Amino acid sequence: MDLNLNRPILVAGAGFAGSVLARCLSEKGYKVIVIDSRSHVAGNAYDEINDLGIRVHRYGPHLFHTNNMKVVEWLSRFTEWLPYEHRVSALLPSGKMAPLPINRRTLELVFGKSLANEEEAKALLASVARPMPEVRNARDYLLSQIGEDLTDLFFAPYTRKMWGYDLSEMDASVVKRIPISYDDEDRYFPHDGFQAVPKDGYTRLIENVLDHSSIDVYLSRPFEREMLNEFDHAFLCLPIDEFFCYSLGPLPYRSIRFHHASIDRAQVRTKAATVNRTDNSEITRSTYWHLLPGHDLKNSSQVTVTSEEPCSYEDNGYERYYPIKTSDDRFGERYRQYVKMAQAEPKVTFIGRCGTYQYLDMHQVVSQTIAIATRWIEARA
Protein backbone atom coordinates (compact mmCIF):
# COMPACT_ATOMS: atom_id res chain seq x y z
CA MET A 1 0.00 0.00 0.00
CA ASP A 2 1.45 3.34 -1.03
CA LEU A 3 0.82 5.92 1.70
CA ASN A 4 3.04 8.59 0.16
CA LEU A 5 0.37 10.77 -1.45
CA ASN A 6 2.10 14.17 -1.86
CA ARG A 7 3.06 14.10 1.79
CA PRO A 8 -0.36 14.23 3.43
CA ILE A 9 -1.06 14.32 7.16
CA LEU A 10 -1.01 11.04 9.09
CA VAL A 11 -3.49 10.31 11.86
CA ALA A 12 -2.86 7.10 13.80
CA GLY A 13 -6.11 6.08 15.45
CA ALA A 14 -9.67 6.07 14.13
CA GLY A 15 -11.46 6.66 17.41
CA PHE A 16 -13.02 9.94 18.48
CA ALA A 17 -9.73 11.86 18.73
CA GLY A 18 -8.24 10.72 15.44
CA SER A 19 -11.47 10.97 13.48
CA VAL A 20 -12.34 14.46 14.73
CA LEU A 21 -8.78 15.62 14.03
CA ALA A 22 -8.90 14.19 10.51
CA ARG A 23 -12.21 15.87 9.78
CA CYS A 24 -11.02 19.26 11.03
CA LEU A 25 -7.92 19.11 8.82
CA SER A 26 -9.76 17.80 5.76
CA GLU A 27 -12.26 20.64 5.92
CA LYS A 28 -9.34 23.07 5.74
CA GLY A 29 -7.97 21.48 2.58
CA TYR A 30 -5.50 18.98 3.99
CA LYS A 31 -5.16 15.46 2.65
CA VAL A 32 -5.35 13.05 5.59
CA ILE A 33 -4.46 9.38 5.90
CA VAL A 34 -6.04 7.66 8.91
CA ILE A 35 -4.71 4.30 10.06
CA ASP A 36 -5.78 2.03 12.90
CA SER A 37 -4.31 -1.21 14.17
CA ARG A 38 -7.81 -2.55 14.78
CA SER A 39 -10.13 -3.85 12.08
CA HIS A 40 -12.77 -1.20 12.74
CA VAL A 41 -13.23 2.53 13.30
CA ALA A 42 -14.64 4.24 16.41
CA GLY A 43 -11.93 3.04 18.81
CA ASN A 44 -13.22 2.02 22.22
CA ALA A 45 -16.64 3.48 21.34
CA TYR A 46 -17.15 0.83 18.65
CA ASP A 47 -20.58 -0.77 18.73
CA GLU A 48 -22.20 -3.55 16.72
CA ILE A 49 -25.53 -5.37 16.51
CA ASN A 50 -25.42 -8.99 17.64
CA ASP A 51 -27.54 -11.98 16.60
CA LEU A 52 -30.30 -11.03 19.07
CA GLY A 53 -30.68 -7.63 17.46
CA ILE A 54 -29.04 -5.96 20.47
CA ARG A 55 -26.57 -3.15 19.94
CA VAL A 56 -23.53 -3.89 22.10
CA HIS A 57 -20.55 -1.62 22.79
CA ARG A 58 -17.62 -3.99 22.38
CA TYR A 59 -15.38 -2.13 24.84
CA GLY A 60 -17.92 -1.22 27.50
CA PRO A 61 -20.78 1.30 27.72
CA HIS A 62 -20.26 4.73 26.23
CA LEU A 63 -22.80 7.34 27.32
CA PHE A 64 -22.59 10.83 25.91
CA HIS A 65 -23.18 13.67 28.37
CA THR A 66 -21.98 17.27 28.39
CA ASN A 67 -22.72 20.93 29.01
CA ASN A 68 -20.56 21.91 26.04
CA MET A 69 -23.14 22.69 23.39
CA LYS A 70 -20.44 23.57 20.86
CA VAL A 71 -19.37 19.94 20.94
CA VAL A 72 -22.99 18.80 20.59
CA GLU A 73 -23.44 21.12 17.61
CA TRP A 74 -20.27 19.80 15.96
CA LEU A 75 -21.20 16.14 16.42
CA SER A 76 -24.82 16.72 15.41
CA ARG A 77 -23.61 17.22 11.84
CA PHE A 78 -22.90 13.49 11.80
CA THR A 79 -25.66 11.91 13.88
CA GLU A 80 -29.15 12.25 15.23
CA TRP A 81 -29.57 11.69 18.96
CA LEU A 82 -31.81 9.67 21.22
CA PRO A 83 -32.25 11.32 24.63
CA TYR A 84 -31.05 9.13 27.46
CA GLU A 85 -30.42 9.89 31.12
CA HIS A 86 -28.18 7.21 32.59
CA ARG A 87 -29.05 5.57 35.89
CA VAL A 88 -27.01 3.07 37.88
CA SER A 89 -28.08 0.69 40.63
CA ALA A 90 -25.75 -0.86 43.17
CA LEU A 91 -26.42 -4.45 44.24
CA LEU A 92 -26.22 -4.51 48.03
CA PRO A 93 -25.26 -7.53 50.16
CA SER A 94 -28.95 -7.77 51.14
CA GLY A 95 -29.87 -8.33 47.51
CA LYS A 96 -31.61 -4.96 47.28
CA MET A 97 -30.79 -2.43 44.57
CA ALA A 98 -29.75 1.05 45.72
CA PRO A 99 -29.42 4.15 43.53
CA LEU A 100 -25.86 5.21 42.75
CA PRO A 101 -24.50 7.88 43.09
CA ILE A 102 -25.68 8.11 46.68
CA ASN A 103 -28.97 9.90 47.22
CA ARG A 104 -31.66 10.05 49.91
CA ARG A 105 -33.12 6.70 48.89
CA THR A 106 -29.67 5.08 49.07
CA LEU A 107 -29.22 6.33 52.62
CA GLU A 108 -32.61 4.97 53.64
CA LEU A 109 -31.79 1.52 52.26
CA VAL A 110 -28.33 1.32 53.82
CA PHE A 111 -29.11 2.75 57.26
CA GLY A 112 -32.69 1.50 57.53
CA LYS A 113 -34.01 4.94 58.34
CA SER A 114 -36.79 7.04 56.89
CA LEU A 115 -35.54 10.46 55.77
CA ALA A 116 -38.31 12.97 55.18
CA ASN A 117 -36.33 15.57 53.23
CA GLU A 118 -32.94 16.85 52.07
CA GLU A 119 -32.18 18.38 55.44
CA GLU A 120 -32.48 15.00 57.18
CA ALA A 121 -30.29 13.38 54.51
CA LYS A 122 -27.62 16.05 54.97
CA ALA A 123 -27.78 15.67 58.73
CA LEU A 124 -27.32 11.90 58.48
CA LEU A 125 -24.26 12.24 56.25
CA ALA A 126 -22.85 14.95 58.49
CA SER A 127 -23.21 12.62 61.48
CA VAL A 128 -21.22 9.82 59.82
CA ALA A 129 -18.66 11.92 57.96
CA ARG A 130 -15.16 11.98 59.41
CA PRO A 131 -13.51 15.44 59.44
CA MET A 132 -10.19 15.40 57.62
CA PRO A 133 -7.64 18.17 58.25
CA GLU A 134 -5.95 17.20 54.99
CA VAL A 135 -7.34 15.23 52.05
CA ARG A 136 -4.40 13.19 50.77
CA ASN A 137 -6.14 10.57 48.69
CA ALA A 138 -9.47 9.17 47.52
CA ARG A 139 -10.23 7.45 50.84
CA ASP A 140 -9.66 10.64 52.82
CA TYR A 141 -12.03 12.51 50.54
CA LEU A 142 -14.80 9.91 50.81
CA LEU A 143 -14.46 9.63 54.59
CA SER A 144 -14.80 13.40 54.84
CA GLN A 145 -17.98 13.34 52.77
CA ILE A 146 -19.86 10.10 53.53
CA GLY A 147 -18.09 8.31 56.38
CA GLU A 148 -16.59 4.87 56.76
CA ASP A 149 -19.62 2.59 56.27
CA LEU A 150 -20.67 4.03 52.92
CA THR A 151 -17.07 4.29 51.76
CA ASP A 152 -16.37 0.64 52.53
CA LEU A 153 -19.65 -0.50 51.01
CA PHE A 154 -19.77 1.38 47.71
CA PHE A 155 -16.20 2.38 46.95
CA ALA A 156 -13.53 0.30 48.70
CA PRO A 157 -14.17 -3.11 47.06
CA TYR A 158 -15.08 -1.52 43.73
CA THR A 159 -11.89 0.56 43.66
CA ARG A 160 -9.69 -2.40 44.53
CA LYS A 161 -11.25 -4.39 41.68
CA MET A 162 -11.31 -1.49 39.24
CA TRP A 163 -7.85 -0.06 39.76
CA GLY A 164 -5.87 -2.77 41.53
CA TYR A 165 -5.07 -0.24 44.24
CA ASP A 166 -6.57 0.64 47.60
CA LEU A 167 -8.58 3.85 47.92
CA SER A 168 -5.75 5.28 50.04
CA GLU A 169 -3.41 4.90 47.06
CA MET A 170 -5.67 6.60 44.52
CA ASP A 171 -5.89 10.31 43.80
CA ALA A 172 -8.98 12.05 45.18
CA SER A 173 -9.98 13.18 41.68
CA VAL A 174 -10.93 9.59 40.87
CA VAL A 175 -13.93 9.78 43.22
CA LYS A 176 -14.60 13.53 43.29
CA ARG A 177 -16.26 13.25 39.88
CA ILE A 178 -19.05 11.13 41.42
CA PRO A 179 -21.81 13.43 42.77
CA ILE A 180 -23.74 13.06 46.01
CA SER A 181 -27.44 13.97 46.13
CA TYR A 182 -29.50 14.71 49.22
CA ASP A 183 -32.84 14.39 47.43
CA ASP A 184 -34.13 11.64 45.14
CA GLU A 185 -32.01 12.66 42.14
CA ASP A 186 -30.93 9.33 40.65
CA ARG A 187 -29.30 10.31 37.37
CA TYR A 188 -25.64 9.40 37.13
CA PHE A 189 -24.80 12.69 35.40
CA PRO A 190 -27.24 15.10 37.09
CA HIS A 191 -25.35 18.27 36.19
CA ASP A 192 -25.02 17.73 32.44
CA GLY A 193 -27.65 19.47 30.34
CA PHE A 194 -27.25 17.28 27.26
CA GLN A 195 -27.46 13.52 27.67
CA ALA A 196 -28.05 11.17 24.73
CA VAL A 197 -26.77 8.33 22.59
CA PRO A 198 -26.29 8.44 18.80
CA LYS A 199 -29.43 7.20 17.07
CA ASP A 200 -27.55 4.75 14.85
CA GLY A 201 -24.66 4.06 17.20
CA TYR A 202 -21.14 5.38 17.67
CA THR A 203 -19.68 3.36 14.82
CA ARG A 204 -21.99 5.02 12.31
CA LEU A 205 -21.26 8.43 13.85
CA ILE A 206 -17.51 7.98 13.38
CA GLU A 207 -17.99 6.55 9.87
CA ASN A 208 -19.85 9.75 9.02
CA VAL A 209 -17.10 11.91 10.51
CA LEU A 210 -14.53 10.12 8.35
CA ASP A 211 -16.67 10.34 5.21
CA HIS A 212 -14.79 13.10 3.40
CA SER A 213 -13.12 13.11 0.01
CA SER A 214 -9.81 14.19 1.55
CA ILE A 215 -9.71 11.38 4.12
CA ASP A 216 -8.49 7.85 3.36
CA VAL A 217 -8.84 5.20 6.06
CA TYR A 218 -6.71 2.04 6.34
CA LEU A 219 -7.70 -0.47 9.00
CA SER A 220 -5.63 -3.30 10.48
CA ARG A 221 -2.64 -1.06 9.86
CA PRO A 222 -0.48 -0.38 12.95
CA PHE A 223 1.72 2.68 13.21
CA GLU A 224 5.41 2.30 12.38
CA ARG A 225 8.00 4.99 13.07
CA GLU A 226 9.24 4.77 9.49
CA MET A 227 5.93 6.28 8.38
CA LEU A 228 7.01 9.66 9.75
CA ASN A 229 9.31 10.06 6.75
CA GLU A 230 6.34 9.89 4.38
CA PHE A 231 4.12 12.54 5.94
CA ASP A 232 4.20 16.24 6.58
CA HIS A 233 3.00 15.75 10.15
CA ALA A 234 1.63 12.92 12.31
CA PHE A 235 -1.09 13.07 14.96
CA LEU A 236 -0.79 9.98 17.13
CA CYS A 237 -3.45 8.49 19.38
CA LEU A 238 -1.08 5.73 20.39
CA PRO A 239 0.51 5.49 23.85
CA ILE A 240 3.27 8.04 24.24
CA ASP A 241 5.41 5.66 26.31
CA GLU A 242 5.18 3.02 23.58
CA PHE A 243 6.34 5.56 20.97
CA PHE A 244 9.48 6.16 23.02
CA CYS A 245 10.04 2.42 23.58
CA TYR A 246 9.19 2.72 27.31
CA SER A 247 12.56 4.38 27.87
CA LEU A 248 11.36 6.07 31.08
CA GLY A 249 9.25 3.13 32.17
CA PRO A 250 5.65 2.23 31.29
CA LEU A 251 2.54 4.32 31.87
CA PRO A 252 0.17 1.69 33.25
CA TYR A 253 -3.50 1.30 32.44
CA ARG A 254 -6.35 -0.78 33.74
CA SER A 255 -7.97 -2.99 31.18
CA ILE A 256 -11.27 -4.88 31.12
CA ARG A 257 -12.26 -8.42 30.25
CA PHE A 258 -15.84 -8.51 29.00
CA HIS A 259 -18.11 -11.47 29.69
CA HIS A 260 -21.23 -11.59 27.52
CA ALA A 261 -24.30 -13.65 28.36
CA SER A 262 -27.77 -14.11 26.91
CA ILE A 263 -30.63 -14.31 29.39
CA ASP A 264 -34.40 -14.45 29.13
CA ARG A 265 -35.90 -10.99 29.01
CA ALA A 266 -38.28 -11.98 31.80
CA GLN A 267 -35.30 -12.62 34.13
CA VAL A 268 -34.20 -8.98 34.12
CA ARG A 269 -34.86 -7.42 37.52
CA THR A 270 -33.42 -3.96 36.97
CA LYS A 271 -34.68 -0.81 35.31
CA ALA A 272 -31.18 0.68 35.37
CA ALA A 273 -29.01 -0.20 32.39
CA THR A 274 -25.95 -0.62 34.63
CA VAL A 275 -25.71 -2.51 37.90
CA ASN A 276 -22.60 -2.11 40.07
CA ARG A 277 -21.38 -4.92 42.30
CA THR A 278 -20.43 -3.95 45.86
CA ASP A 279 -19.06 -7.39 46.76
CA ASN A 280 -15.53 -8.78 46.60
CA SER A 281 -16.07 -10.75 43.41
CA GLU A 282 -13.97 -10.00 40.33
CA ILE A 283 -16.88 -8.28 38.55
CA THR A 284 -17.40 -4.53 38.90
CA ARG A 285 -20.56 -3.94 36.89
CA SER A 286 -22.99 -5.40 34.36
CA THR A 287 -24.69 -3.62 31.49
CA TYR A 288 -28.13 -4.57 30.16
CA TRP A 289 -27.86 -3.26 26.61
CA HIS A 290 -31.55 -3.50 25.71
CA LEU A 291 -32.31 -0.81 28.30
CA LEU A 292 -30.42 1.79 26.28
CA PRO A 293 -32.52 3.60 23.64
CA GLY A 294 -31.92 2.43 20.08
CA HIS A 295 -30.20 -0.74 21.29
CA ASP A 296 -33.10 -3.21 21.37
CA LEU A 297 -33.81 -3.62 17.66
CA LYS A 298 -35.65 -6.96 17.49
CA ASN A 299 -37.37 -7.22 20.88
CA SER A 300 -36.38 -10.88 21.02
CA SER A 301 -37.16 -13.12 24.00
CA GLN A 302 -33.52 -13.01 25.08
CA VAL A 303 -31.30 -10.03 25.86
CA THR A 304 -27.55 -9.51 26.19
CA VAL A 305 -25.82 -8.71 29.48
CA THR A 306 -22.13 -7.80 29.62
CA SER A 307 -20.18 -8.07 32.87
CA GLU A 308 -16.81 -6.38 33.36
CA GLU A 309 -13.76 -7.87 35.01
CA PRO A 310 -10.96 -5.30 35.42
CA CYS A 311 -7.38 -6.44 35.03
CA SER A 312 -3.91 -5.17 34.24
CA TYR A 313 -3.47 -4.20 30.61
CA GLU A 314 -0.43 -6.48 30.59
CA ASP A 315 -2.79 -9.41 31.22
CA ASN A 316 -5.18 -8.43 28.43
CA GLY A 317 -3.13 -8.04 25.29
CA TYR A 318 -2.13 -4.47 26.23
CA GLU A 319 -5.69 -3.25 25.66
CA ARG A 320 -5.60 0.14 27.36
CA TYR A 321 -8.76 1.63 28.86
CA TYR A 322 -8.11 3.69 31.99
CA PRO A 323 -4.88 5.52 32.86
CA ILE A 324 -4.01 5.06 36.53
CA LYS A 325 -3.87 8.18 38.71
CA THR A 326 -2.31 7.48 42.10
CA SER A 327 -2.24 9.81 45.09
CA ASP A 328 1.50 10.37 44.74
CA ASP A 329 1.13 11.16 41.01
CA ARG A 330 4.15 9.02 40.14
CA PHE A 331 2.77 8.08 36.74
CA GLY A 332 1.73 11.64 36.02
CA GLU A 333 5.28 12.77 36.63
CA ARG A 334 6.56 10.05 34.31
CA TYR A 335 4.12 11.19 31.63
CA ARG A 336 5.36 14.78 31.91
CA GLN A 337 8.89 13.54 31.29
CA TYR A 338 7.66 11.83 28.13
CA VAL A 339 6.04 15.12 27.06
CA LYS A 340 9.46 16.78 27.30
CA MET A 341 10.84 14.09 25.01
CA ALA A 342 7.95 14.66 22.59
CA GLN A 343 8.85 18.32 22.31
CA ALA A 344 11.94 17.21 20.40
CA GLU A 345 9.67 15.61 17.77
CA PRO A 346 8.36 18.62 15.79
CA LYS A 347 6.55 16.46 13.25
CA VAL A 348 4.54 14.59 15.89
CA THR A 349 1.55 15.60 18.03
CA PHE A 350 0.06 13.21 20.60
CA ILE A 351 -3.71 13.28 21.05
CA GLY A 352 -6.49 11.32 22.74
CA ARG A 353 -6.55 9.32 25.95
CA CYS A 354 -3.42 7.28 25.27
CA GLY A 355 -1.48 10.13 23.71
CA THR A 356 -2.13 12.46 26.64
CA TYR A 357 -2.45 9.82 29.41
CA GLN A 358 -5.73 11.29 30.64
CA TYR A 359 -9.11 9.94 31.62
CA LEU A 360 -11.31 11.85 29.20
CA ASP A 361 -15.03 11.67 28.53
CA MET A 362 -16.07 11.72 24.89
CA HIS A 363 -17.10 15.37 24.87
CA GLN A 364 -13.73 16.29 26.38
CA VAL A 365 -11.91 14.34 23.67
CA VAL A 366 -13.87 16.14 20.96
CA SER A 367 -13.37 19.59 22.50
CA GLN A 368 -9.66 19.02 23.13
CA THR A 369 -9.08 17.64 19.65
CA ILE A 370 -10.85 20.51 17.89
CA ALA A 371 -8.71 22.95 19.88
CA ILE A 372 -5.50 21.08 18.93
CA ALA A 373 -6.48 21.05 15.26
CA THR A 374 -7.40 24.74 15.32
CA ARG A 375 -4.09 25.77 16.89
CA TRP A 376 -2.09 23.62 14.46
CA ILE A 377 -3.90 25.01 11.42
CA GLU A 378 -3.55 28.61 12.62
CA ALA A 379 0.16 28.13 13.29
CA ARG A 380 0.65 27.11 9.66
CA ALA A 381 -1.45 29.90 8.17
Structure, explained:
A hairpin with a 5-residue loop joins strand 3 (47-49) and strand 4 (55-57). The strands form four sheets. A seven-stranded mixed beta sheet has the order 8-7-13-14-15-12-16. The protein is globular, with a radius of gyration of 22 Å. It has eleven helices and 17 strands. The chain is an alpha/beta fold and 381 residues long. The model is unreliable at 1-5 (pLDDT under 50).
Strand order of the main beta sheet, please?
8-7-13-14-15-12-16
What is the distance, rounded to the nearest whole angstrom, between the alpha carbons of the first and last residues?
31 Å
Residues in helices, as a percent range: 25-40%
Content of β-strand:
15-25%
Radius of gyration: 22 Å
Shape summary:
globular
Mean pLDDT: 96
Structural class of the helix and strand makeup? alpha/beta
Assembly status:
single chain
Total beta strand runs = 17
Largest sheet: 7 strands, mixed
Count of helices?
11
Spans of at least 5 consecutive residues with low confidence: 1-5
Order of helices and strands: EHEEEEHEEEHHHHEHEEHEEEEEHEHH
Structure described in brief:
By secondary structure, this protein is α/β, with parallel strands linked by helices.
